């Protein structure tokens, strides 16, 4: 018995929750480094402060994948209980995050936020495989990418929109996150929970009996414990997953470099408006710590020093708003790229391998351009447009290739295990990899974007390792009869 093909709006509704998930990730990606800088972190320490994010994914996703494979709630089904739990926790974390008063507090909340987002996200990947026949899976992942693109673009522009349109200030006292960022995170929390609820209420899951009828049940299968199942899955990882893992390693190292260091790199190199060092303008003690009064307000050397700091900090906040807005372009481009793929793959076959390879190489070129445009932020449109093509492919092609090559009975677990190839490169980058590599070129943070470009091109070329025809070849999802 074959699964019925779903209509576009059915696929759209089942993927709509990704809008909220991406709001969470995009606000994190475009704003988290700005929050760390505001709280006093230096640029070289920022990647390490992000380590909580990939660690959370590495630990949470395989566990959630296993649990969602083995869950059935009579009302919410198999995957939707995790959508709801993750949405509630993520929304709370988003509301609290910008009120962090210390770097360690923001880093801890990042761990909570990323773990919560992963609880919702991993089952969404598996839901596509649960609901769609193989012929529609690329189509489903592309629609998912389309929604992710919308979320990335809108959420990345939120701080600038809140400042310019809602007239909420993007300035604050030293060490305090601006009100515009706080409002943006609150909006993100509302969008997160609302979009997840749309998917929960509009999408029904197949029952265990129906999955068995489709040949994807687990009747008669040997039941193991969670740890044993996860470890055996790592040990029996299919060849396609391992080769895709090489592609993923270079891809996610590159994007982690962007998320962690794009703000200090671009505000300094392209806008000439880096975060001012408060110690240069404030009264300091023998250890170089700025002095504060009884109300914990910074004591400046003079009124002129305070004015100079305020002007520089205002320029930094405006540059950061614009960097976030420009980063949103990669979400918009990925959306348009996904839209083109959606229409094309509905009626035509594609070679997933070469589509992904070409997309990643274009993204790498986008990163390399950044070094050559100091003082010309308008050209970031070109850079992030090319990066968006790579991002749109990263969010669809690897999952489509993988879902056609693994045991459908363990789709949630497989998607969770596959996440190790996303998390491990980010962890390596966080513990010093990206800073070490870019300092081989120079001390300036902009060289991290050059490393990102080189790694994304290597990711593209790594697709040549993939030779499995079932993974590579995609057939149309809609019959042309």
TrEMBL record:
This is MFS transporter. Keywords: Membrane, Transmembrane, Transmembrane helix, Transport. The lineage of its organism: Bacteria, Pseudomonadati, Bacteroidota, Flavobacteriia, Flavobacteriales. GO terms for molecular function: transmembrane transporter activity. The chain crosses the membrane at residues 12-36, 48-68, 80-97, 103-119, 139-156, 183-201, 244-262, 327-347, 354-373, 379-401, 413-436, 448-467. Gene3D superfamilies: MFS general substrate transporter like domains (1.20.1250.20). It is found in: Membrane. InterPro entries: MFS, MFS_trans_sf. It comes from the Bacteria. It comes from Cochleicola gelatinilyticus. Pfam families: MFS_1 (PF07690). GO terms for cellular component: membrane. PANTHER family: SOLUTE CARRIER FAMILY 45 MEMBER 3 ISOFORM X1, SUGAR TRANSPORTER. It is a multi-pass membrane protein.
């Amino acid at each position: 018995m074959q699964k019925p093909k779903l209509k576009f709006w059915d696929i759209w509704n089942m993927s709509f929750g990704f809008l909220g998930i991406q709001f969470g990730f995009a606000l994190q990606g475009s704003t988290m480094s700005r929050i760390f800088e505001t709280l006093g972190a230096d640029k070289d320490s920022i990647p390490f402060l992000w380590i909580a994010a990939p660690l959370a994914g590495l630990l949470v996703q395989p566990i959630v994948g296993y649990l969602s494979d083995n869950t059935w709630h009579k009302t919410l089904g198999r995957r939707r209980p995790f959508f709801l739990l993750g949405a509630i926790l993520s929304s709370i974390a988003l509301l609290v995050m910008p009120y962090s008063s210390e770097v360690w507090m923001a880093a801890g909340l990042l761990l909570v936020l990323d773990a919560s987002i992963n609880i919702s996200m991993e089952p969404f990947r598996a839901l596509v495989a649960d609901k769609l026949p193989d012929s529609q899976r690329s189509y489903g992942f592309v629609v998912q990418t389309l929604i992710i693109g919308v979320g990335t673009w809108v959420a990345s522009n939120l701080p600038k929109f809140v400042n310019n349109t809602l007239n909420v200030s993007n300035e604050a006292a030293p060490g305090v996150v601006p009100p515009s960022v706080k409002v943006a995170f609150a909006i993100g929390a509302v969008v997160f929970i609302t979009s997840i609820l749309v998917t929960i209420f509009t999408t029904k899951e197949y029952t265990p009996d129906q999955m068995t009828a489709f040949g994807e049940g687990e009747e008669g299968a040997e039941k193991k414990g969670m740890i044993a199942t996860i470890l055996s899955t790592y040990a029996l990882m299919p060849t396609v997953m391992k080769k895709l893992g090489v592609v993923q390693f270079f891809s996610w190292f590159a994007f982690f470099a962007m998320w962690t260091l794009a703000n200090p790199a671009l505000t300094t190199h392209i806008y000439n408006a880096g975060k001012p060092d408060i110690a240069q303008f404030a009264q300091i003690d023998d250890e170089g710590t700025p002095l504060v009064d009884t109300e914990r307000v910074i004591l400046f050397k003079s009124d002129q020093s305070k004015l100079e700091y305020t002007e520089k900090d205002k320029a930094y906040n405006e540059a950061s708003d614009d960097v976030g807005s420009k980063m949103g372009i990669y979400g918009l481009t990925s959306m348009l790229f996904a839209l083109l793929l959606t229409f094309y793959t509905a009626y035509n076959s594609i070679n997933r391998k070469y589509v992904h390879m070409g997309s990643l190489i274009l993204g790498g070129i986008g990163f390399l351009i950044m070094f050559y445009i100091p003082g010309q932020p308008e050209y970031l449109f070109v850079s992030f447009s090319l990066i968006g093509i790579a991002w749109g492919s990263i969010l669809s092609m690897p999952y489509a290739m993988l879902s056609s090559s693994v045991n459908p009975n363990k789709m949630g677990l497989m998607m969770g295990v596959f996440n190790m190839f996303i998390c491990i490169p980010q962890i390596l980058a966080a513990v010093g990899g990206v800073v070490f590599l870019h300092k081989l070129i120079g001390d300036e943070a902009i060289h991290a974007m050059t490393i990102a470009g080189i790694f994304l091109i290597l990711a593209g070329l790594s697709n040549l390792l993939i030779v499995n025809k079932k993974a590579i070849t995609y057939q149309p999802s809609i019959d042309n009869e």
